Amino acid sequence: PVRPAADFNVEADAKALRKAMKGFGTDEETLINIIPYRSNAQRQKLRKQFKSQLGRDLMADLKSEVGGNLQRVLLGLMMTPAQYDAKQLQKAMKGAGTDERVLIEILTTRTNQEIQDIKEAYQEVYHNSLEDDLSSDTSGHFKRLLICLVQGNREEQDADLARAMEDAKELCSSSDEESSSMESKFISILCTRSYPHLRRVFQDYIKLTNKDIEQAIKNEMSGDLLFGLIAIVRSIKNKPSFFAERLYKSMKGAGTDDRTLTRILLSRSEIDLMNIRHEFKEMYEDSLYSFIEGDTSGDYGKVLLALCGGED
Q1: 203 near 167, Cβ under 8 Å?
Q2: Tens digits of residue pLDDT in 139-177
Q3: Other Cβ atoms closer than 10 A to 22
Q4: How far, in Å, are 164, 217, 306 from residue 267 at the CA level?
């Protein structure tokens, strides 16, 4: 995981980065020895410094000097977390087809504050509201799920035991009704209640039905709505394990889903990557580090390993 550099010298960093990109050829080693080893707050200072000290745009320089996956990860690291998430959401919607998995991964796992910041960043860069874009890009119950999540209005208090039992009963009874009201109940309870409260609801649900709530969702729902609700349930039960599984799937088998791999390592690097590493090792008996090492190469691989930190 990323920690602030102890002896951070913004002027020296700016100078070194410029030197690495100046003239013919690029000294990638300098770029990858600096950028992933600074915290995001330090990188933001570096972007400003680069402009005021050298009159140049660091993002534009990186874009013209490096390409491919390395470019994607370095540019991502230079954005604020909110700008980065906003860009991933926009990329998931623009052009033909929508990458629903990305919308789900980001919107189901971010905190209220993170969602507010993402909406501001999105508006600033794309001059459009995130909610409007989601609305025109999705439909049906899945659209309603995303619109609920993008409000960033989840309760934050502890579990209320009596109300948790009521919520659990509500979710049980909903499977006897016609499906549209059932979907509405799941959406409204799973998108608005606090994490501790929902953990309690899930326990009560098992008591009432002898079934895990995931099983019920799988039996009753399908498509993107199913994936969205399962993602909420898993990230409430154990968010690091939700991300560990996504990382595993991005690397297992033939080929690598570099976008998912990069997105998760980058966006969790200062939040819960240590816990994700721990869960990964528990779940797959191999370290996240060794998986990344086996699945990536070159300077791009080095940056991802730097974000990951040590071998477990």
Answers
A1: no
A2: 999 999 999 999 999 999 999 999 999 999 999 986 666
A3: 14
A4: 32, 28, 14
